[in-house]
Design goal:
single chain; alpha/beta; 13 strands; 45% helix; Heparan sulfate glucosamine 3-O-sulfotransferase 3A1
Length: 365
């Protein structure tokens, strides 16, 4: 009986010692944590992923620069989704740092393009793409993939991986002007999706041919004269349609190839001339065709007298406006007027047929 009392007293004392030690070590941990937090070290600790996502979804940036919770402003509605899209689009389309781009690219998924600018070379395709990229619901590849004309053997998965990530409601786009004149391209695009929307930027074929020649001349200064390349025989005036600068401008012939696979309703023809004289008007048509809200308007453009074409006004936070590079708006070489007249006569019947096929008069004659 005495032994059991002594044993119970010993165990009770042992528990009291353990309890005191636990309290002691707990206090040490708490004081250490408070010390580090007071010195700012807690801010560098990783936060739970759930907390980061919650903060991203529940905070809305107001116009005056303050933050407010989603509870204060109701449900996370469509306008707030559009804001997030616009911010992510700015990060990936603008001149953001590589860190910002990588963060933006973690959102959304890669899809096949729902719309493709398929032509034509030197028609204004680069300008159209840059104007479209202002729109927060457009995500486009910057460079030309050339999948349907050069790299088709790499497969559709390779092509899809080239595309930027998009959120729900955004459109994936790419541009490769040589698709329009590539015989196999319509069938290949149709095999990917028969619902793909196709945009063709066309320009006076004579002016387009001279512009094409000018671009080639800058790369190959020893190139023969324009008239020597344009005519098989300068005496007879027979046009050399094997020269790509001439062949591209026979729009009706190339369009016939596309209409074998796609209805006319799937194609939009943008005037390269009106894209210069009335960029907002042409962009309105393009946005309507793509099923987008008319976000890109005349407030985004100004006419650059030096370059001779419209540029985008400088975005907020940028020191200069966004104009196309030095390769755009080059001065054309002087071509004899009789050469241009012969070429215009050659294109006239093809132009009239193109007007009839598209239901649009582009006024080139």
């Amino acid at each position: 009986m005495g032994c059991s009392k002594w044993r119970a007293a010993f165990n009770f004392g042992h528990l009291k010692v353990q309890s005191k030690l636990s309290v002691f070590f707990t206090m040490i941990i708490l004081f250490t944590y408070l010390f580090y937090c007071l010195n700012g070290y807690c801010d560098s600790l990783p936060r739970p992923v759930y907390d980061q996502q919650s903060n991203f979804q529940n905070k809305i940036i107001l116009n005056d620069g303050h933050e407010a919770s989603a509870q204060q402003h109701g449900a996370y509605n469509a306008s707030q989704v559009s804001f997030v899209r616009e911010q992510l689009s700015d990060l990936s389309n603008g001149d953001s740092s590589s860190n910002n781009i990588s963060i933006a690219n973690n959102y959304g998924s890669k899809k096949f393009p729902q719309a493709i600018i398929i032509g034509v070379k030197k028609g204004g395709t680069r300008a159209l793409l840059e104007f479209l990229r202002i729109h927060p619901d457009v995500r486009a590849v910057g460079s030309e993939p050339h999948f349907f004309d050069r790299f088709y053997d790499k497969g559709l998965e390779w092509y899809r991986n080239l595309m930027p990530r998009t959120l729900e409601g955004q459109i994936t786009m790419e541009k490769t002007p040589s698709y329009f004149i590539t015989k196999e391209a319509p069938r290949r695009v149709f095999s990917m999706s028969r619902h793909t929307k196709l945009i063709v930027v066309v320009r006076d074929p004579v002016t387009r041919a001279v512009s094409d020649y000018t671009q080639t001349l800058t790369k190959s200064p020893g190139l023969p004269s324009f008239q020597n390349l344009a005519f098989r025989n300068t005496t007879t005036g027979l046009i050399d349609t094997s020269w790509s600068a001439v062949r591209i401008g026979i729009y009706a012939k190339h369009l016939e190839n596309w209409l074998r696979f796609f209805p006319l309703s799937r194609l939009l023809f943008v005037s390269g001339e009106r894209l210069v004289t009335d960029p907002a008007g042409e962009m309105g048509r393009v946005q309507d065709f793509l099923g987008l809200k008319r976000v890109v308007t005349d407030k985004h453009f100004y006419f650059n007298q030096t370059k001779g074409f419209p540029c985008l006004k400088k975005p907020e936070g940028s020191s200069r406006p966004r104009c196309l590079g030095k390769s755009k708006g080059r001065p054309h070489p002087q071509i004899p007027s009789e050469v241009l007249l012969r070429l215009r006569d050659f294109y006239r019947p093809f132009n009239l047929k193109f007007y009839q096929m598209t239901g649009q008069n582009f006024g080139w004659d």
